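User: Please fill in residues for this 126-position structure.
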C-alpha cells in the first residue's frame, strides 16, 4: 500500500477544473497555549498542537483557526473532510484561494509553498 504525503494536490473531475489541496494532520488536543501551532511537518503528516480540548468539536474548530492563520486563507476555505472524531484528520483547501491574484503556478510550487509556510511557523514556535 503506497503512503500518501502530508500535503497532496487532488484534481477534481474534468467538468470542474478545481483542485483541492489536502493536508493530512495529526492533532494533539489539550496542549498548552505556548505550544499551540505546528509541531512538525513530516513526510506523512502535519503535526498540530491545539490548546482546545477534544470536546464538542472545540479541537476541530481550533485546527481550522490555526491553519487559516498560518496559510493566510479564510476559515471558510478550510474543511475537515476526514477524521472529525479522530486525532488523524484530513483538511481540504481549495487551491484557488492560494492562486487568487497570482499567476497559476505549477502544482509542485503550490505544495512547496504550503510546506514552506507550515515549516516557517514550526521554526518560529521552537
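Assistant: Residues filled in for all 126 positions:
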Amino acid at each position: 500500500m503506497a503512503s500518501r504525503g502530508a500535503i497532496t494536490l487532488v484534481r477534481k473531475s474534468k467538468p470542474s477544473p478545481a483542485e483541492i489541496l489536502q493536508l493530512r494532520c495529526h492533532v494533539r488536543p489539550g496542549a498548552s497555549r505556548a505550544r499551540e501551532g505546528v509541531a512538525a511537518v513530516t513526510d506523512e503528516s502535519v503535526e498540530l498542537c491545539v490548546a482546545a480540548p477534544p470536546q464538542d468539536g472545540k479541537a476541530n474548530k481550533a485546527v481550522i483557526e490555526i491553519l487559516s492563520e498560518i496559510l493566510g486563507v479564510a476559515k471558510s476555505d478550510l474543511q475537515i473532510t476526514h477524521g472529525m472524531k479522530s486525532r488523524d484528520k484530513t483538511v481540504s483547501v481549495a487551491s484557488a484561494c492560494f492562486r487568487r491574484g497570482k499567476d497559476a503556478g505549477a502544482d509542485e510550487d503550490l505544495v512547496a509553498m504550503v510546506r514552506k509556510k507550515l515549516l516557517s511557523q514550526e521554526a518560529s514556535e521552537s
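For context: The first strand starts at residue 7 and ends at 11.
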